[in-house]
Amino acid sequence: MRPENEAAMAEMVKTAAGPLRVIGGGTRDIGAPVEGETLSTAKMSGVSLYEPGALTIVAGAGTPLAEIEAVLAAEEQRLAFEPMDHRPLLGTSGEPTIGGVVAANVSGPRRIQVGSCRDSLLGVRFVDGAGRVLKNGGRVMKNVTGYDLVKLMAGSWGTLGVLSEVSLKVQAIPEASACVLLNGLDDVAAVNAMSMALGSPYDITGAAHAPVGVDGHPVTMIRIEGLEASVAYRAEKLKALFAKTGAEVLVERTPEKLTAGWKWVRDAELMQGGAGDVWRYSLKPSDAPQVVADIQEQHPEIKVLYDWGGGLVWVEAPAGTDLRRSEFAGHATLVRASNATRRAVPAFQPEPAPLVTISKGLRAKFDPRGILNPGLMG
Prior knowledge:
Low-confidence stretches: 140-146
Structural class: alpha+beta
CATH topology of the largest domain: Uridine Diphospho-n-acetylenolpyruvylglucosamine Reductase, domain 3
Largest sheet: 5 strands, antiparallel
Number of helices: 13
Strand order of the largest sheet: 3-4-8-6-7
CATH architecture of the largest domain: 2-Layer Sandwich
Shape: globular
Radius of gyration: 21 Å
Number of domains: 3
Number of strands: 17
Order of helices and strands: HEEEEHEHHHHEEHEEEHEEHEHEHEEEHH
């Protein structure tokens, strides 16, 4: 089913005889496989409002992400939260949609400065599991009472409603950027260096570490963006700050290399094309090196990439390995695995009992028949 407008989608959901597999472009096949008739928002496409001066864009949920980015780039603007392209990692095809980005709350390296997709979301329109059209928020940031459906829909993976339209705040593309590179740090030293940078006054927009970089050696990446004079000043200050780490410190300013380097981090290119399962950990940066060390003790062959200053860790492990952990304060998500593994191993970290109760209550409220992506999130 591929409705062309919100009313048609509402009727399809209302009259559905069984479960629906809700997708946008079908590029983020994550979570337990959903058995049901496919409902795609891909035809609900197009930018309905763009106000560059107000830093606001409104678009149909099925609008290709590439179209959104092209419209913004023409006005030297961008989506601040730097959404990942999952296709190379997951081996999927098609076009990522802005609704899919919101539904999965997809957020890249710049999250440490501007927040996640959820934090850029101003308003939503969606159809719930009963076929009702609901809307929340608008075109400006404001506080709300009752359900904050805008925040609720981001990261709900289509289990509470099918998005039909989203409204987002956007950001001007900065004049200049630079990446301070620290070569040769181990994981603990790298996380300490990233924490030092993030705690500095130098307005960091990216902080990542690869124990094995593209040249086979450890590299830590610290990004700064802004006005040319400010970027140059902050780069020198960071070089001085990192002198005490004992690492080789370099500054990269070539635009093409900067774009390629942060895309390598954003899209977890280190793990693309591999045969192993890919896990994504969200945790305290100070816990990250020990969590990785514990996994390496059991699986020395794993590949690892740290982002968000160590708050996000990508791990590629042998296929079929359950890497959910209960002894750390954080979440583990199974991003890539075979269908058999995805059926056997819950993709999302088990919730504490109080959150389970809340989640069940929300699903009963917005999807009383349990037909929207049933079982996807466990």
